[in-house]
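Take the subject:
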Amino acid sequence: MNRKIYLITGATGHIGTVLVSVLLEQNAEIRVLVLPQERQFAPKGVQVCEGDVTDIASLKNFFDVSDYKDTTLIHCAALITVSSKENPQVWNVNVNGTENVMRLAVESGIGRVIYVSSVHAIPEKPLGETVSEVDSFSPDLVHGQYAKSKAAASEIVLEYARKGLNVSIVHPSGVLGPGDLRRKNHMIRTVRAMASGSIPFAIKGGYDFVDSRDVVQGILGCEKNGERGECYILSGHYISVLELQNIIRGTVGKKPAKIELPYGLMRAIAPAAERLCRLFGQKSPIITPYSIYTLHTNGRFSYDKAAKAFGYSPRPIEETVRDSV
Protein backbone atom coordinates (compact mmCIF):
# COMPACT_ATOMS: atom_id res chain seq x y z
CA MET A 1 0.00 0.00 0.00
CA ASN A 2 2.69 2.52 -1.00
CA ARG A 3 0.82 4.05 -3.93
CA LYS A 4 0.44 7.81 -4.29
CA ILE A 5 -2.55 9.64 -5.69
CA TYR A 6 -3.34 13.24 -6.58
CA LEU A 7 -6.82 14.51 -5.74
CA ILE A 8 -7.73 17.50 -7.91
CA THR A 9 -10.79 19.73 -7.69
CA GLY A 10 -11.57 22.07 -10.56
CA ALA A 11 -9.91 19.68 -13.00
CA THR A 12 -12.00 20.86 -15.97
CA GLY A 13 -11.00 24.51 -15.50
CA HIS A 14 -8.08 26.23 -17.18
CA ILE A 15 -5.39 25.54 -14.57
CA GLY A 16 -6.87 22.17 -13.67
CA THR A 17 -6.80 20.99 -17.29
CA VAL A 18 -3.11 21.82 -17.68
CA LEU A 19 -2.30 20.37 -14.25
CA VAL A 20 -3.92 17.02 -15.08
CA SER A 21 -2.13 16.92 -18.43
CA VAL A 22 1.28 17.48 -16.82
CA LEU A 23 0.66 14.88 -14.11
CA LEU A 24 -0.48 12.32 -16.68
CA GLU A 25 2.79 12.88 -18.54
CA GLN A 26 4.51 11.96 -15.27
CA ASN A 27 2.42 8.76 -15.04
CA ALA A 28 0.80 9.97 -11.83
CA GLU A 29 -2.38 8.40 -10.50
CA ILE A 30 -5.08 11.06 -10.45
CA ARG A 31 -8.60 11.37 -9.10
CA VAL A 32 -10.69 14.36 -10.15
CA LEU A 33 -13.87 15.85 -8.74
CA VAL A 34 -16.44 17.00 -11.29
CA LEU A 35 -20.00 18.23 -11.07
CA PRO A 36 -22.48 15.60 -12.32
CA GLN A 37 -23.51 17.81 -15.23
CA GLU A 38 -19.88 18.27 -16.25
CA ARG A 39 -18.78 14.65 -16.29
CA GLN A 40 -18.41 14.71 -20.08
CA PHE A 41 -15.62 17.26 -19.69
CA ALA A 42 -13.58 15.06 -17.35
CA PRO A 43 -10.09 14.29 -18.68
CA LYS A 44 -9.23 10.80 -19.92
CA GLY A 45 -6.95 8.49 -17.98
CA VAL A 46 -8.04 9.55 -14.49
CA GLN A 47 -10.43 8.37 -11.79
CA VAL A 48 -13.59 10.46 -11.93
CA CYS A 49 -15.76 11.22 -8.91
CA GLU A 50 -18.97 13.21 -9.17
CA GLY A 51 -19.57 15.72 -6.41
CA ASP A 52 -20.02 19.35 -5.43
CA VAL A 53 -17.67 21.15 -3.04
CA THR A 54 -20.68 22.92 -1.52
CA ASP A 55 -22.26 19.56 -0.60
CA ILE A 56 -19.91 17.87 1.85
CA ALA A 57 -21.81 14.56 1.76
CA SER A 58 -21.17 14.29 -1.99
CA LEU A 59 -17.39 14.35 -1.45
CA LYS A 60 -17.13 11.05 0.42
CA ASN A 61 -15.86 8.93 -2.48
CA PHE A 62 -13.47 11.63 -3.66
CA PHE A 63 -11.76 11.70 -0.25
CA ASP A 64 -11.59 7.92 0.23
CA VAL A 65 -7.82 7.37 0.19
CA SER A 66 -7.74 4.18 2.26
CA ASP A 67 -5.86 2.35 -0.52
CA TYR A 68 -3.09 4.94 -0.74
CA LYS A 69 -0.11 5.70 1.47
CA ASP A 70 0.63 9.14 0.03
CA THR A 71 -1.89 11.72 -1.13
CA THR A 72 -1.68 15.25 -2.45
CA LEU A 73 -4.82 17.36 -2.72
CA ILE A 74 -4.76 20.34 -5.10
CA HIS A 75 -7.84 22.50 -4.64
CA CYS A 76 -8.37 24.48 -7.85
CA ALA A 77 -12.18 24.61 -7.92
CA ALA A 78 -13.58 28.15 -7.87
CA LEU A 79 -16.12 30.42 -9.47
CA ILE A 80 -14.35 33.34 -11.13
CA THR A 81 -16.32 36.42 -12.10
CA VAL A 82 -15.82 40.03 -13.14
CA SER A 83 -19.56 40.64 -13.21
CA SER A 84 -21.23 43.51 -11.37
CA LYS A 85 -24.19 41.26 -10.65
CA GLU A 86 -23.87 39.66 -7.22
CA ASN A 87 -23.91 35.87 -7.36
CA PRO A 88 -24.32 34.06 -4.01
CA GLN A 89 -22.77 30.96 -5.55
CA VAL A 90 -19.40 32.73 -5.77
CA TRP A 91 -19.20 32.85 -1.96
CA ASN A 92 -20.79 29.43 -1.59
CA VAL A 93 -18.30 27.69 -3.88
CA ASN A 94 -15.17 29.70 -3.10
CA VAL A 95 -15.58 30.03 0.67
CA ASN A 96 -17.98 27.36 1.93
CA GLY A 97 -16.65 24.88 -0.61
CA THR A 98 -13.07 25.51 0.50
CA GLU A 99 -14.08 25.03 4.14
CA ASN A 100 -15.61 21.66 3.24
CA VAL A 101 -12.54 20.57 1.27
CA MET A 102 -10.11 21.53 4.04
CA ARG A 103 -12.24 19.86 6.69
CA LEU A 104 -12.33 16.59 4.77
CA ALA A 105 -8.60 16.83 4.05
CA VAL A 106 -8.01 16.76 7.81
CA GLU A 107 -10.52 13.99 8.46
CA SER A 108 -9.10 11.85 5.63
CA GLY A 109 -5.49 12.31 6.69
CA ILE A 110 -4.38 13.93 3.42
CA GLY A 111 -0.61 14.30 3.54
CA ARG A 112 -0.15 17.43 1.40
CA VAL A 113 -2.54 20.15 0.27
CA ILE A 114 -2.11 23.05 -2.16
CA TYR A 115 -4.81 25.70 -2.32
CA VAL A 116 -4.96 27.74 -5.52
CA SER A 117 -5.99 31.22 -4.46
CA SER A 118 -5.46 34.43 -6.46
CA VAL A 119 -3.46 37.64 -6.27
CA HIS A 120 -6.85 39.34 -5.93
CA ALA A 121 -7.03 38.00 -2.36
CA ILE A 122 -4.03 40.18 -1.45
CA PRO A 123 -4.72 43.80 -0.43
CA GLU A 124 -3.82 46.31 -3.10
CA LYS A 125 -0.88 48.67 -2.78
CA PRO A 126 -0.52 52.15 -4.28
CA LEU A 127 0.72 52.38 -7.85
CA GLY A 128 4.49 52.14 -8.02
CA GLU A 129 4.86 49.80 -5.05
CA THR A 130 5.51 46.07 -5.38
CA VAL A 131 2.89 43.67 -4.09
CA SER A 132 4.25 40.68 -2.15
CA GLU A 133 2.81 37.92 0.02
CA VAL A 134 0.86 38.56 3.24
CA ASP A 135 0.25 36.30 6.22
CA SER A 136 -3.43 37.07 6.80
CA PHE A 137 -6.45 37.90 4.67
CA SER A 138 -9.68 39.85 5.02
CA PRO A 139 -12.54 40.41 2.56
CA ASP A 140 -12.78 43.97 3.89
CA LEU A 141 -9.35 44.82 2.43
CA VAL A 142 -10.09 43.89 -1.21
CA HIS A 143 -12.60 44.92 -3.86
CA GLY A 144 -15.06 42.82 -5.86
CA GLN A 145 -17.04 39.71 -4.98
CA TYR A 146 -14.46 37.30 -6.40
CA ALA A 147 -11.56 38.93 -4.55
CA LYS A 148 -13.52 39.02 -1.29
CA SER A 149 -14.39 35.34 -1.60
CA LYS A 150 -10.79 34.34 -2.29
CA ALA A 151 -9.55 36.42 0.63
CA ALA A 152 -12.04 34.77 2.99
CA ALA A 153 -11.14 31.32 1.66
CA SER A 154 -7.40 32.00 1.98
CA GLU A 155 -7.83 32.94 5.64
CA ILE A 156 -9.77 29.71 6.23
CA VAL A 157 -6.92 27.74 4.67
CA LEU A 158 -4.33 29.49 6.82
CA GLU A 159 -6.36 28.66 9.92
CA TYR A 160 -6.24 24.99 8.97
CA ALA A 161 -2.48 25.32 8.50
CA ARG A 162 -2.18 26.80 11.99
CA LYS A 163 -4.01 23.75 13.31
CA GLY A 164 -1.52 21.41 11.63
CA LEU A 165 -2.77 20.70 8.10
CA ASN A 166 0.17 20.55 5.69
CA VAL A 167 -1.27 23.14 3.32
CA SER A 168 0.34 25.94 1.31
CA ILE A 169 -1.31 28.65 -0.78
CA VAL A 170 -0.36 29.80 -4.27
CA HIS A 171 -1.59 33.06 -5.76
CA PRO A 172 -1.61 33.15 -9.58
CA SER A 173 -2.02 36.52 -11.29
CA GLY A 174 -4.14 36.87 -14.45
CA VAL A 175 -3.96 33.51 -16.21
CA LEU A 176 -3.30 33.22 -19.95
CA GLY A 177 -1.78 30.36 -21.95
CA PRO A 178 -3.07 27.12 -23.48
CA GLY A 179 -5.54 24.73 -21.86
CA ASP A 180 -8.79 26.67 -21.55
CA LEU A 181 -10.67 24.00 -23.50
CA ARG A 182 -14.09 25.13 -22.31
CA ARG A 183 -13.38 28.81 -23.12
CA LYS A 184 -14.52 30.00 -19.70
CA ASN A 185 -11.44 32.06 -18.79
CA HIS A 186 -12.36 35.75 -19.04
CA MET A 187 -8.91 36.74 -20.32
CA ILE A 188 -8.78 33.97 -22.92
CA ARG A 189 -12.15 35.17 -24.21
CA THR A 190 -10.67 38.68 -24.34
CA VAL A 191 -7.69 37.39 -26.35
CA ARG A 192 -10.10 35.67 -28.72
CA ALA A 193 -12.06 38.90 -29.19
CA MET A 194 -8.90 40.90 -29.81
CA ALA A 195 -7.63 38.34 -32.32
CA SER A 196 -10.93 38.36 -34.23
CA GLY A 197 -10.99 42.17 -34.35
CA SER A 198 -14.24 42.50 -32.39
CA ILE A 199 -12.32 44.61 -29.85
CA PRO A 200 -10.47 47.00 -32.19
CA PHE A 201 -9.27 49.37 -29.46
CA ALA A 202 -7.09 49.18 -26.36
CA ILE A 203 -7.81 50.56 -22.90
CA LYS A 204 -5.23 52.58 -21.05
CA GLY A 205 -3.92 50.41 -18.25
CA GLY A 206 -2.53 46.92 -17.85
CA TYR A 207 -2.00 44.01 -15.51
CA ASP A 208 0.26 41.08 -14.68
CA PHE A 209 -0.42 37.92 -16.67
CA VAL A 210 1.03 34.46 -16.15
CA ASP A 211 1.14 31.35 -18.31
CA SER A 212 -1.10 28.46 -17.24
CA ARG A 213 1.85 26.10 -17.74
CA ASP A 214 4.02 28.17 -15.39
CA VAL A 215 1.26 28.20 -12.77
CA VAL A 216 1.17 24.40 -12.89
CA GLN A 217 4.94 24.17 -12.51
CA GLY A 218 4.63 26.53 -9.56
CA ILE A 219 1.93 24.38 -7.98
CA LEU A 220 4.03 21.23 -8.33
CA GLY A 221 7.13 23.04 -7.10
CA CYS A 222 5.19 24.25 -4.09
CA GLU A 223 3.95 20.73 -3.44
CA LYS A 224 7.51 19.51 -3.09
CA ASN A 225 9.30 22.47 -1.52
CA GLY A 226 6.69 24.91 -0.22
CA GLU A 227 6.26 25.21 3.52
CA ARG A 228 3.13 24.63 5.57
CA GLY A 229 1.16 27.82 6.15
CA GLU A 230 3.16 29.82 3.60
CA CYS A 231 1.81 31.73 0.60
CA TYR A 232 3.54 32.08 -2.76
CA ILE A 233 2.71 34.52 -5.56
CA LEU A 234 2.83 32.89 -9.01
CA SER A 235 2.87 35.98 -11.19
CA GLY A 236 4.24 36.52 -14.66
CA HIS A 237 4.92 39.88 -16.26
CA TYR A 238 3.16 43.23 -16.32
CA ILE A 239 1.96 44.27 -19.76
CA SER A 240 -0.18 47.16 -20.94
CA VAL A 241 -3.43 46.41 -22.74
CA LEU A 242 -2.04 48.08 -25.88
CA GLU A 243 1.08 45.91 -25.82
CA LEU A 244 -1.04 42.81 -25.23
CA GLN A 245 -3.36 43.63 -28.08
CA ASN A 246 -0.56 44.33 -30.53
CA ILE A 247 1.19 41.02 -29.80
CA ILE A 248 -2.15 39.33 -30.46
CA ARG A 249 -2.77 41.32 -33.65
CA GLY A 250 0.75 40.63 -34.88
CA THR A 251 0.29 36.90 -34.29
CA VAL A 252 -2.80 36.80 -36.52
CA GLY A 253 -1.35 39.13 -39.17
CA LYS A 254 -3.30 42.28 -38.30
CA LYS A 255 -1.89 45.81 -38.23
CA PRO A 256 -1.06 47.27 -34.79
CA ALA A 257 -3.86 48.94 -32.87
CA LYS A 258 -3.49 52.70 -32.52
CA ILE A 259 -6.56 53.65 -30.47
CA GLU A 260 -6.06 53.66 -26.70
CA LEU A 261 -9.19 54.78 -24.85
CA PRO A 262 -8.74 56.72 -21.59
CA TYR A 263 -9.47 54.88 -18.35
CA GLY A 264 -11.96 57.55 -17.25
CA LEU A 265 -14.00 57.14 -20.41
CA MET A 266 -14.10 53.34 -20.13
CA ARG A 267 -15.02 53.54 -16.46
CA ALA A 268 -17.96 55.77 -17.39
CA ILE A 269 -19.30 53.57 -20.18
CA ALA A 270 -18.54 50.15 -18.64
CA PRO A 271 -21.88 49.82 -16.74
CA ALA A 272 -23.86 50.48 -19.91
CA ALA A 273 -21.60 48.14 -21.91
CA GLU A 274 -22.18 45.34 -19.43
CA ARG A 275 -25.95 45.84 -19.47
CA LEU A 276 -25.98 45.93 -23.28
CA CYS A 277 -24.05 42.66 -23.49
CA ARG A 278 -26.48 40.99 -21.13
CA LEU A 279 -29.38 42.34 -23.16
CA PHE A 280 -27.96 40.52 -26.19
CA GLY A 281 -27.62 37.26 -24.27
CA GLN A 282 -24.01 37.34 -23.06
CA LYS A 283 -24.00 35.79 -19.58
CA SER A 284 -20.35 36.72 -18.95
CA PRO A 285 -19.52 40.09 -20.55
CA ILE A 286 -15.87 40.94 -21.10
CA ILE A 287 -16.18 44.66 -20.38
CA THR A 288 -17.56 45.33 -16.90
CA PRO A 289 -16.84 48.01 -14.29
CA TYR A 290 -14.72 45.53 -12.33
CA SER A 291 -12.67 44.37 -15.32
CA ILE A 292 -11.93 48.01 -16.21
CA TYR A 293 -11.15 48.83 -12.57
CA THR A 294 -8.63 45.97 -12.40
CA LEU A 295 -6.66 47.34 -15.35
CA HIS A 296 -6.00 50.52 -13.39
CA THR A 297 -4.92 48.87 -10.13
CA ASN A 298 -1.39 48.00 -9.11
CA GLY A 299 -0.42 44.94 -11.14
CA ARG A 300 3.21 44.83 -10.04
CA PHE A 301 3.60 41.51 -8.21
CA SER A 302 6.78 39.90 -6.92
CA TYR A 303 7.36 36.17 -7.38
CA ASP A 304 10.73 36.31 -5.59
CA LYS A 305 9.52 34.13 -2.70
CA ALA A 306 8.43 31.34 -5.06
CA ALA A 307 11.65 31.67 -7.04
CA LYS A 308 13.75 31.19 -3.92
CA ALA A 309 11.59 28.41 -2.47
CA PHE A 310 11.18 26.19 -5.53
CA GLY A 311 12.83 27.82 -8.54
CA TYR A 312 9.72 29.39 -9.99
CA SER A 313 10.47 31.30 -13.20
CA PRO A 314 7.76 32.38 -15.67
CA ARG A 315 8.41 32.34 -19.40
CA PRO A 316 8.40 35.52 -21.53
CA ILE A 317 4.96 37.13 -21.86
CA GLU A 318 5.28 37.23 -25.66
CA GLU A 319 5.44 33.42 -25.77
CA THR A 320 2.44 33.14 -23.49
CA VAL A 321 0.32 35.53 -25.54
CA ARG A 322 1.21 33.88 -28.86
CA ASP A 323 0.47 30.42 -27.51
CA SER A 324 -2.81 31.70 -26.12
CA VAL A 325 -3.81 32.85 -29.59
Summary: The first strand starts at residue 4 and ends at 9.
